[in-house]
Design brief:
heterodimer, A: 263 residues, alpha/beta, Rossmann fold, six-stranded mixed beta sheet, four-stranded antiparallel beta sheet, B: 322 residues, mainly alpha, 12 helices, 72% helix, 0% strand
Chain lengths: 263, 322
């Protein structure tokens, strides 16, 4: 087995007396679309937050491409190719859709105040390149008609698309999608799934996603990691997961597996 | 008749001079709040630092206060910007990790500390008696021309300030700042070092607040603790920005002029009232400005000239989507 892209080793996180994640270990392979599922409160988002640098783990170690990234701030992880989206869309609402994308790329010369004030020539060329890339991303996600719209005016589903669009403005090694499908209608969801698949196949993005829609997971993801009560319950293909009584028990409570297989 | 006309002209010269100085400070606040979402409620502190810095640097040597160093006015103004910027850096390093509302409280506290230090360190600032003999450019000219020439200086400084802040805003730097204002978590997730960007904006804006303080000291040829009262240098500046249009530099300038015109004209009116009324009327003025703010917020929440996206992301300046 090759070196995993992300490796979570014995990670724990407690908030006061509550232990949200307990001794959690898992890996995400390069080029995969890995799912992270589990009942509400299983610690999925907390784990994502730790991997993406939004909170440090209480214990344990996280590596990206073999490099220790435990406790590094999000902007440094972004620079190393780890990008995430949010369960609740975090759009820049007073800015246009186009600006929402154009803000993302790294190493823009004009982000330096001195360059912005004194070396305008360097900005213009870079701006038109970034603009072009943003237009391509919007085209890919069928958002072109909304490019001059304020992001705050978008519908819930469109905001989710915008979240995905922002990740496409980077050359990310791995994209963490936190419930991209939540609140998105089925037609758009099917389109999103196709988009993710294409990005994975054609552009080599690795995806790691938290998702509740089992059809979407069955279609896209291999492997599927199941979390329950703060730790990894099991891991495998969708078929294996569905056949595992422990998983059904975690979702539906003790005894559910027995009742389900009985008739 | 001619004298009345002359009086009116001089009144307007004075009004635009002070209004223009306010415009510089409001542009600084727009950099903090309008662009970057930093709730600075301690404008008075940076204003005071700027005003006293230039006063100490440019006055002739005096036993009553530190210096003076008799330096040219432009060097004094530059010094004010540098000092205000350095202080803002220190304050920012401590406070900018705080959330918006706590930042407001912290900046009020720090501004008051600076004001009280400047008021009480008599060896440095001559305490409550203030620093006199602050030079004003063109003060040797005959009466109308001296004031008019100084107004010219103010207009020039406003124009230069506007040019600088507009350039910063209409660049990827401004775009990042606006993104941080809108959602700092998402900006962090988009790889922006939020704390560093905020610190830059905080220092940048504070420099213009210091410059405004310096211009005030030169305009009145005097700086004392009364000039740095938060009512005039924090509250009024905030009202100007909100009424003018938070996030828009042109709105910031317009807000400064409009609010100052209302403020100073009501003073003119109260001057005609009997003395015991006049005292009460000055309080009424604060009420009036508060009322104006309320009306603006209820009906035109974007201000007189609301914010809009700079060229590249703005629909008005692009061909419409097919």
């Amino acid at each position: 087995m090759t070196q995993p892209l992300i490796s979570v080793e014995h990670v724990s996180k407690s908030f006061g007396g509550i232990q949200a994640v307990r001794d959690c270990s898992l890996t995400v392979q390069k080029g995969s679309i890995t799912a992270l599922i589990g009942p509400n409160g299983a610690g999925k988002t907390t784990l994502f937050n730790m991997v993406a640098g939004f909170m440090p783990p209480t214990a344990g170690r996280i590596t990206l491409d073999g490099e220790d990234i435990t406790g590094k701030p999000p902007h440094q992880l972004f620079a190393r190719g780890l990008v995430r989206t949010f369960q609740i869309p975090h759009e820049f609402s007073a800015m246009t859709v186009l600006e929402n994308l154009m803000v993302v790329p790294m190493e823009q010369a004009g982000e330096s105040l001195l360059v912005a004030l004194f070396v305008r020539g360097r900005i213009h060329k870079q701006e038109s390149e970034i603009r072009e890339r943003a237009e391509q991303v919007l085209e890919f996600l069928r958002l072109t008609h909304l490019r001059f719209e304020r992001a705050g005016n978008l519908s819930g589903g469109q905001k989710k698309l915008l979240e995905l669009a922002r990740t496409m403005m980077t050359d990310a090694k791995i994209v963490l999608l936190d419930e991209l499908g939540a609140g998105v209608n089925r037609t758009l969801l099917a389109e999103l799934a196709t988009d993710i698949e294409r990005l994975n196949r054609e552009q080599g993005y690795t995806f790691w996603l938290i998702e509740h829609d089992m059809d979407l997971i069955a279609r896209l993801c291999d492997p599927v990691i199941v979390m329950a009560e703060g730790t990894v319950l099991t891991q495998g293909t969708m078929a294996e997961i569905q056949a595992n009584p422990a998983v059904i028990e975690a979702y539906l409570g003790a005894g559910a597996a027995a009742r389900r297989t009985a008739p | 008749m001619e004298q009345t006309l002359f009086g009116i002209m001089m009144y307007f010269v004075a009004m635009f001079t002070i209004g223009g100085i306010y415009a510089i400070i409001v542009l600084g606040l727009n950099m903090h709040w309008g662009v970057s979402g930093l709730f600075n409620a301690g404008i008075a502190g940076f204003f005071a630092i700027g005003a006293y810095t230039t006063a100490i640097l440019t006055t002739p040597t005096s036993p009553k206060h530190l210096g003076g160093f008799d330096l040219p006015v432009w060097l004094g103004m530059l010094g004010s910007m540098v000092t205000a910027g350095i202080v803002a850096y220190g304050v920012g390093r401590i406070c900018l990790r705080l959330r918006a509302d706590y930042l407001a409280i912290a900046t009020i506290g720090i501004a008051e500390i600076f004001r009280l230090v400047l008021k009480n360190e008599t060896w440095m600032t001559n305490g409550t008696r203030g620093i006199t003999n602050v030079p004003r450019p063109f003060e040797d000219f005959a009466t109308p021309w001296s004031q008019i020439a100084f107004l010219g200086v103010v207009i020039l400084v406003v124009a230069a300030t506007y040019f600088i802040v507009e350039r910063a805003l209409d660049a990827p730097w401004g775009r990042v700042m606006r993104a941080i204002r809108e959602n700092d978590t998402a900006a962090e997730a988009a790889g922006k070092n939020v704390v560093r960007f905020r610190l830059q904006a905080f220092v940048f804006g504070a420099m213009f607040m210091g410059l405004g303080g310096a211009m005030t000291a030169h305009a009145f040829k005097f700086i004392g603790p009364e000039a740095t009262e938060p009512l005039l240098t924090t509250f009024l500046v905030w009202v100007m920005l909100i009424i003018g249009g938070s996030g828009n530099n042109r709105g910031a300038i317009l807000g400064a002029i409009v609010v100052w015109a209302i403020w100073s004209m009501t003073q003119l009116v109260t001057g005609f009232l009997p003395p015991d009324w006049a005292v009460r009327a000055s309080l009424l003025r604060v009420f009036l400005v508060g009322l104006l703010l309320q009306v603006m917020l209820q009906n035109f929440s974007g201000g007189l000239i609301p914010e809009k996206s700079p060229k590249i992301g703005d629909r008005q300046k692009q061909t419409p989507a097919p």
